[in-house]
């Protein structure tokens, strides 16, 4: 394979060995040192421990996120990075955290239940004990039948996704075949990884959203006490969590609401449907932070040393914020710990990069990539106008990690044809660690999109999926236990190598054509 | 295969088709009716719902078990069974249930945690908020270092079984190959399914038990407030539960103790080990029932109609009691619901069995098969003396179901060579439902052993393992969701067929040689 030269024209993906024909200098000795430091003296799990267990959940603008930000700033400084800073990116909204959360069924018998207040929902009026009413609403007309039925009740809403027998494993790794498929040539207008919705699906989604927006005012006007919900399934104790109210300072009021373990929610539902009176007791105490409504990213640098190139920047990052039922271990303490470990490795090796290396730990990614979007807007360009700032031409590359805790199997070129042979060369000494694949495909859902949106070369790595899609993404089970140390060590070595190569290369990484100005898209 | 006649002498297992060469009358029309009723008009899931969700956890002598017993007695009567009764089998001990259970970490930040009071542990003194101390004890000498350190503290003990990445499925079914292996001939002294412990393992187990028995008095004498433990692992929110104190009325005192979700326990441990002060708050309120210390089984009959045979009995059963963190759905509401459904099917078909069919739902199985052992002792024989009671010769067979919620794949002949061709014939019309295999092997762990111990033909079916061993057996996740309806329907049809055949057969089922008198072994 090594001797076959494939024509690159009209082809956006290719196997790594073939692409590597394009001569690209790689400092093999330095890669060996990075491997040695990253695999044998890793601190990535210690970093992950401080970001997860010690900081706690890191909801946007929460005290947990601020603990993690302060710790990261200090740790990066202690490792020798320069200009470590917690940098405001603009206005976000209210912070919020849980001070107490308890829910149990008290009739027909006692059963402590598992649930978590939805983000930005208010407290209950102390410990309340109420009868349960099951509310099934699929259209606005359905609300009518609950008029006068909800006063002083705890509302239980439907479960639409039923637990399945676990005949499939929670976790998986990419097979060679899957990776080869990702590396295979695709047509120039590579379709996005997640196909766009059909018009029908979009209409249905909008109708559901419109209905949802009417529920809270209805429940409040009817005098209900609280809501127990499970809108997205999950099984064997795993449940998903999100926000139950906007984070905006002027958000409309909602009821206290807990997202519940599927098994507990289903038991309540089955009992009510069988005509058996059900009573629950619950207490949630939540605290809003309204003193500082700004959002913040953590940044720090390894200064460049090349007279001509030191004003150019190679960036790496991941989002530090998380949802709040777990500790955001795979989403995305993992990515942040790997990025921090990558710069720690480079500092430990005392590299003198030609370009400046800048790490950024974003905030409010979960609410719409706000930290990275605003950083890009403040530093590089606003995609709405495409008026470029001076720094726009200085960015050599941005590397992102936010697809769970799986090891890196390659990288998405994000439709950037010219960068593919370069990445293939960089991957060669990392092949033995399982990182082999350059795909032309684009991938979405995280902060490299903010760079891509203004024509900057922003990339997300391909990671083994593990149990991210089934068990950890936005769930109460996204905890430190879900982080496989060997995967995170491997990822740290790959990222450190990529960042080092990008900082040392004679040229910045090639870019795609600049996009035209457009309104900022919502994720 | 059907035409090959295998010699049975010296062989204790054989494939079903070969064994079926032995002519055994099977009423094919009745089997078809049983299938129709059991597969098309099943009530097994409704029964399972009342045993689990409606009754709640069914710890031995708890109010939950009494609710389930009363419901089963009434339901069996409503279906037309005779002599439904809640029959005392003798002395058990205290009942116990949870009236409140709440536990949360309050420092370094707030996190509601998941845990369940161990059975028969006492209440906390209201809501307590205490500092956490990690206690690691592997020998009695280790206790010394905690002297004076535990006053007014919550003790956190070690986790010895770490969560694993879920690369293997929770649930599985037997493969054809596995079933063929079970059906293959084995030597006469078939080794038990679970190999006995080595002397070394037994010594180590005894040493651990001896050490454990010293912990509670030590913790109490040191003035500790409560214990949080996770002695048996589990992952992604699943944890095991058992008793934390004896059920005997004169049991020594212990501290309040909760069995914790592995993730929550590990977070506490990691924080304490990193030198970070950890505080928890908890409240458990548990209630002991000491009015009635007797244990009870539920029994009911379909009376026999053959003048000569109606005093003979075919029994079927499963244990109704459970552990208490879930609702004992797979252990063993599943088995009870299937057994109840089997007699419902037979009642619905208005069968007039020659022999009397008697269902028994046992109690206190989890504490040592007490319900069935004492039933056998009261009705048939005491294995300690082997003095046979008159009913001993009247029992045609006992069929048990207690290996989770998986469909029936065959039956353990329990070393009874003579019964194998009969079972093979009975399975033939059930082969199409996946029930194919007769194995000579013995299986243990449940109530058929009580019959087998006095030379009565007691059998447990082979069931697909599903997620019984990984996810549900004695865990907080043993809930209604873990019951696959199609599996329980299939099992009901198989059991109804076996019971019917045993009730109609000219002869009782063949027996093994009578055992000699021996002290009752502990499970």
From TrEMBL, chains A, B:
Main location class: endoplasmic reticulum
InterPro entries referenced in this protein's UniProt entry, alphabetically: CPQ, Peptidase_M28
Species this protein is from: Hymenobacter profundi
Pfam families: Peptidase_M28
The entry's keywords: Carboxypeptidase, Endoplasmic reticulum, Glycoprotein, Golgi apparatus, Hydrolase, Lysosome, Metal-binding, Metalloprotease, Protease, Secreted, Signal, Zinc, Zymogen
Record note on quaternary structure: Homodimer. The monomeric form is inactive while the homodimer is active.
Protein's UniProt name: Carboxypeptidase Q
Subcellular location: Endoplasmic reticulum; Golgi apparatus; Lysosome; Secreted
Signal peptide: 1-20
All copies of domain Peptidase M28, residue ranges: 297-498
């Amino acid at each position: 394979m090594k001797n076959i030269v494939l024509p690159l024209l009209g082809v956006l993906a290719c196997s790594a060995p073939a692409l590597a024909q394009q001569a690209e200098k790689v400092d093999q000795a330095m890669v060996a040192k990075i491997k040695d430091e990253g695999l044998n003296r890793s601190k990535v799990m210690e970093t992950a421990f401080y970001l997860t267990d010690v900081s706690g959940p890191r909801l946007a603008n929460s005290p947990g996120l601020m603990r993690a930000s302060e710790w990261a700033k200090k740790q990066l400084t202690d490792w020798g990075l320069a200009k470590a800073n917690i940098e405001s990116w603009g206005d976000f909204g209210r912070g919020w955290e849980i001070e107490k959360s308890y829910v149990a069924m008290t009739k027909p018998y006692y059963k402590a239940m598992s649930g978590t207040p939805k983000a930005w929902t208010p407290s209950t009026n102390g410990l309340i004990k109420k009868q349960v009413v099951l509310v099934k609403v699929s259209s606005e007309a359905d609300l009518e039948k609950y008029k006068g039925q909800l006063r002083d009740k705890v509302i239980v809403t439907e479960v639409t996704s039923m637990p399945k027998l676990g005949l499939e494993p929670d976790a998986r790794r990419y097979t060679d075949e899957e990776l080869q498929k990702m590396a295979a040539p695709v047509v120039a207008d590579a379709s996005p990884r997640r196909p766009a919705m059909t018009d029908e699906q979009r209409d249905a989604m909008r109708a559901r959203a419109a209905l949802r927006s009417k529920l809270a005012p209805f429940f409040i006007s009817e005098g209900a006490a609280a809501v127990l919900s499970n809108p997205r399934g999950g099984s064997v104790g795993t449940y998903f969590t999100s926000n139950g109210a906007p984070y905006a300072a002027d958000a409309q009021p909602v009821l206290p609401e807990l997202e519940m373990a599927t098994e507990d929610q289903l038991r309540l539902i089955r009992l009510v449907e069988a005509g058996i009176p059900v009573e629950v007791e619950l207490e949630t105490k939540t605290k809003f932070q309204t003193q500082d409504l700004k959002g913040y990213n953590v940044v720090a640098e390894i200064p460049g040393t090349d007279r001509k190139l030191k004003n150019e920047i190679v960036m790496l990052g991941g989002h530090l914020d998380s949802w709040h039922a777990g500790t955001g271990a795979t989403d995305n303490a993992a990515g942040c710990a790997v990025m921090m470990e990558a710069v720690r490795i480079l500092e430990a090796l005392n590299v003198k990069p030609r370009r400046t290396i800048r790490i950024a730990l974003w905030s409010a990614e979960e609410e719409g990539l706000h930290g990275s979007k605003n950083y890009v807007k403040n530093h590089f360009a606003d995609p709405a106008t495409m008026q470029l700032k001076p720094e726009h031409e200085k960015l050599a590359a941005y590397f992102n990690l936010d697809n769970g805790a799986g090891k890196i199997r390659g990288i998405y070129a994000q439709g950037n044809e010219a960068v593919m042979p370069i990445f293939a060369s960089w991957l060669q000494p990392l092949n033995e660690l399982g990182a082999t694949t350059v795909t032309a495909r684009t991938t979405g859902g995280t902060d490299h999109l903010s760079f891509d949106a203004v024509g900057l070369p922003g990339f997300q790595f391909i990671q083994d999926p593990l149990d991210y899609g089934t068990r950890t993404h936005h769930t109460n089970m996204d905890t430190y236990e879900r982080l496989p140390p060997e995967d995170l060590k491997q990822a740290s070595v790959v990222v450190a190598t990529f960042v080092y190569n990008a900082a040392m290369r004679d040229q910045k990484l090639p870019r795609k054509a600049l996009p035209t100005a457009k309104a900022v898209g919502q994720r």
